Amino acid sequence: MAVSRSLRRTNPITIVLAGLLAIGFLVFIFSPSPSSAASGSGNERKSYAAENPLSPPTKPFFKEAPIKANGRRAPPPVVRYALNNNTATSTSASNHERVLILTPLARFYVGYWENLVKLSYPHEYISLGFIIPKTREGNAAASALQAAIKKTQSGPVNDRFASITILRQDFDPPIVSQDEKERHKMENQKIRREAMSRARNSLLFTTLGPSTSWVLWLDADIVETPETLIQDLTKHNKPVIVPNCYQRFRDPETRQMDTRPYDYNSWVDSARSLEIAAAMGPDEIMLEGYAELPTYRTLMAHLADKSPNRDIDKIMPLDGVGGTALMVKADVHRDGAMFPAFPFYHMVETEGFAKMARRLGWKCFGLPNYFVYHYNE
């Protein structure tokens, strides 16, 4: 049989190379990625993905080719969620309960992100949400956050989070400076914490999904926690629970590293604090941790046992909670407990949230001997 002129002129080596190239291309396409094969969680992550793009950002959504009917794009589906199937139990990890970690972020701390990535709770059940102010410092924080996210989400599969949402505030912050001294001035507290409440509520209402079991509020300047933070907090199976927030520092007298209390917003009311509240006007708020306004409340920060053999599971009821590392059952938020941006029983933000949760029938608790650590400026 006569061979065509084009084939007679083709170098046999070229044909062999073309065949090898085709085989290599097919192997590359159909082979699993090394990270997916090593972790074995690729298929599991796929099974927990959202079914359609209308799902809230609690779960990852893997975009498929658009479905068309009769040459037209199919209409959006009607989505039904069985919220009664959700659980929030003491064995959260083994029950595959989804955790939403929410962080108002004005500055980006590398230690915060590194600590977040080290959390041992399965990352395929963790979604992240951030809200960032539209300021020069906020823009820098957003850029640094996006760089960290890109590195983590393109790294090993087991380190990747299920989904990440970044919001930018639609209002100007009342205090431009984020320096610790400026943030904690007493005269700045009302407007600052009311603005923080608005930011927290915007973040919560945008990201809370129907499959969320737990919401962990984690401040952007919390740079050290146990890797088992989520398991340690959820195992108590409480509606609202908060650890003790401390800060590492170098003692100028001993020149040795030590720890000191940082968050004074977790407390039990006193007779004096209730008297002060009863005498306040409707728009006044009570603040904790300021010498100008002694309330004589029982502060969880002052009840800590720092000894090595302390009972980290010791638990106590609270009337107010701080928000540095606050674990909340999602049903508490679904019931309507949010962060009041107005005086609610003379409380705002996280302390006002505790008051609101209690009015809805939920109780708040604290772990005085379980520590998380705040960045030391």
Explain what the structure shows.
This protein has 377 residues and is of the alpha/beta class. It has a single domain, classed as Spore Coat Polysaccharide Biosynthesis Protein SpsA, Chain A (Alpha-Beta Complex), CATH 3.90.550.10. The strands form 3 sheets. Strands 3, 4, 5, 6, 7, 8, 9, 12, 13 and 14 form a 10-stranded mixed β-sheet that branches. The protein has a two-stranded antiparallel sheet with strand order 1-2. Helix 5 links the parallel strand 3 and strand 4. The chain is globular and about 95 Å long. The N terminus is likely disordered. This is Mannan polymerase complexes MNN9 subunit. One of its GO terms (cellular component) is mannan polymerase complex. It comes from Helicocarpus griseus UAMH5409. It is found in: Golgi apparatus membrane.
Question: How is this structure best summarized?
Answer:
The chain has 377 residues and is an alpha/beta fold. It contains twelve helices and 14 strands. It has a single domain, classed as Spore Coat Polysaccharide Biosynthesis Protein SpsA, Chain A (Alpha-Beta Complex).
Can you identify the CATH superfamily?
Spore Coat Polysaccharide Biosynthesis Protein SpsA, Chain A
Structural category: alpha/beta
- Average residue-wise pLDDT: 86
Write down the secondary-structure element order.
HHHHEEEHEHEHHEEHEEEHEEEHHE
Identify low-pLDDT runs: 3-8, 32-40
Please work out how many helical segments DSSP would assign: 12
% residues in beta strands: 15-25%
Basic shape: globular
> Could you say what the CATH architecture is?
Alpha-Beta Complex
CATH class: Alpha Beta
CATH topology: Spore Coat Polysaccharide Biosynthesis Protein SpsA, Chain A
What Rg, in angstroms, do the CA atoms define? 26 Å
Q: Kindly report how far apart the N and C termini lie.
A: 85 Å
Question: How many independent structural domains?
Answer: 1
Fraction of residues in helices?
25-40%
Record field, number of beta strands: 14
Main pleated-sheet profile: 10 strands, mixed
